[in-house]
Amino acid sequence: MQATAVLKEEHDVIERVLTMVEFAVDRLSRKQTIPTGFAAWSIEFFRHFADHCHHGKEEDILFPLLQERGIPVEGGPIGVMLSEHELGRDCVRRMDDAVARGDDGNEEFSVAASQYACLLRQHIFKENNVLFPMADSCLSPADDEEVVAAYQSTECERNHGEVHDRFVAEVANWETVFANL
6-23: buried (b, 16+ CB within 10 Å) or exposed (e) per residue? Predict the structure, then answer.
């Protein structure tokens, strides 16, 4: 499997959660409740699956190799992606602050969650349609194999494989909950 295909599959999982977050924000805007525990779970998902597992692969493995192959960080697409990762972390921190105060149904959570969903959808689009095609064209087959092997090794070292599988199952469970609202 191509290195970028692994990341695109993870994007698909992340977008499924973004859909539920957007639905939750819409319910909150209409003064309706959201499923108990969803706000806290979504934060955990974004921190562990989207950031540590997914962005970790990009930041620690793919992006440095792309830089070696001539794709610039400063003023280039990698720099934009890294900046957006930081913006996303700020949104998740604000979501977490709201939930920590017991305010997962308040405006602060909704605003941060809505901003994060918008940011991440645009971010994923840019990666899938700009950066990843660039990566596919500049990485050799040997590079690609090396990156995929590094992803697998990192997942084992950091126990991300277990986290990945757990969250994929939990996403399906939450989708069932939301389908029954």
Answer: bbeebbebbeebbebbee
d(CA 119, CA 67) in angstroms, rounded, equals 24
- Diameter over CA atoms, the chain: 54
| Between 104 and 43, residue with greater pLDDT | 43
Question: How far is residue 133's CA from residue 76's CA, in Å, rounded to a whole number?
Answer: 14
Pair of tokens at residue 112: 């941060």
pLDDT of residue 146: 95
Domain spans of the chain? 3-179
pLDDT at 57: 94
Domain made up of 3-179: CATH architecture: Up-down Bundle (1.20)
User: What residue type is 9 in one-letter code?
Assistant: E
Give the 3-state DSSP-derived string for the chain, with helices as H, strands as E and coil as C.
Answer: CCHHHHHHHHHHHHHHHHHHHHHHHHHHHCCCCCCCCHHHHHHHHHHHHHHHHHHHHHHHHHHHHHHHCCCCCCCCHHHHHHHHHHHHHHHHHHHHHHHHCCCCCCHHHHHHHHHHHHHHHHHHHHHHHHHHHHHHHHCCHHHHHHHHHHHHHHHHHCCHHHHHHHHHHHHHHHHHHHHCC
